[in-house]
Every structure is written in structure tokens, then in C-alpha cells.
Amino acid sequence: NKELAPILKKYKLVFLGEQSVGKTSMITRFMYDSFDTNYQATVGIDFLSKTIYFQNKVVRLQLWDTAGQERFRSLIPSYIRDSQVAIIVYDITNALSFEQTIKWIDDVKSERGSNVLIILVGNKVDLESLREVTIEEGQKLAKKLNIPFIETSAKCGYNIKQLFARIGDSLPVID
Ligand code: GDP
Ligand code: MG
């Protein structure tokens, strides 16, 4: 009985990437299965948690949503240091946001070394006609860095569940 299963493990996930790539929208889609077209910039750091099932175990996920504004960037390293999973997001219609993923990945590695699961996410695939970053470019970078990669649309809900399933599959076996 899932209802009675004890919470066995807590994971902290931090969402990183340039402003307006869709970090908050991905979290909102995952948490509430909804999407808001009005842009509301995240202020500082937001926190949400959700209980899910990974590998048939109850797992508590803490999702840390970060903001891109310069004045909050100094807060981010401490959240990275605390997280077991870093989700690096870019917008497939914004080449600069893709180039900047390197910087975010470097930040994660300098805080946590290899003791972290990093996943690269290209969001907004519903905007195919405005695409500036090919799927092959995303795949190539992920392959070079040896990290998982997925393309999503928070707007359509495309691959959002799969993103979290992929994270679950990539975490070390929970015992
Ligand atoms: P954040 O700054 O990274 O948290 O980005 P937001 O989640 O606030 O999204 C920034 C803008 O992009 C908002 O206007 C969203 O509605 C829009 N957006 C986010 N995800 C998608 C998506 O998958 N497709 C489209 N078309 N727009 C998106
Ligand atoms: Mg946000």
C-alpha cells in the first residue's frame, strides 16, 4: 500500500539556467499539471516539495527554483552545494541560453565535483519554427559531458514526466 509506505529518502533538486528559459514553468507543470502564459519572474529562490515514487520507493523531492537576476546569483551556490540533482535548462529558441549552460554546469561541478546528477534540458520544443538550437547540438554537448539530455515543453507538458522519470532512473539505487 503506497499510502502507508514510509518516506525513505529525500532528494534536493536545483533548477538552473538563464532567465525565462522555463524553469518555473517546468516545475509548475510537474507539480500541478498546469501552465501560465503570463511571465512572472521568480524572485530569489523558491521551494516546492512533492512525494513521488522512484524505483517502487517513496521519495520526497525538494525542488529549488532559482532566479536569473544578477542580484540573486550569489545565493545560488549554497543551493547547488545542498542538492543531489542539478537540472540545467535552456530554451531551444535562444542560442545564448544554450551557450550559458556550460557556465551553469561548471558552477555545479565546482561546488559538488562529480558527486551530483546533472541533467541537460532543452525546453520550449513547441516553438519549433523559432528553434535556434538543434536537438543534435543538445545531444552532442550532453554526450561530451556524459550527462542525460531531454527536450521538453512545459507549455504542452511534453516530456516533463519523462524528465523526472529519467532523474529517478539515473539516481543510485535507493535502499
Ligand atoms: P524561468 O525564468 O526560467 O523560470 O522561466 P518561466 O518558467 O518563468 O518562463 C518564461 C516564459 O517562457 C513565460 O512567458 C512562460 O510562459 C514561457 N514558457 C515557459 N516554458 C515554455 C514552453 O515550454 N513553451 C513556450 N512556448 N513557452 C514557455
Ligand atoms: Mg522562474
UniProtKB/TrEMBL annotation:
Kindly indicate whether the keyword Nucleotide-binding belongs to this entry: yes
What would be an example GO MF term here?
GTPase activity
What is the name of the protein in this document?
Uncharacterized protein
Record keywords: GTP-binding, Nucleotide-binding
Span within the full-length protein is: 6 to 180 of 210
Q: Which domain of life is it from?
A: Eukaryota
Presence of keyword Acetylation = no
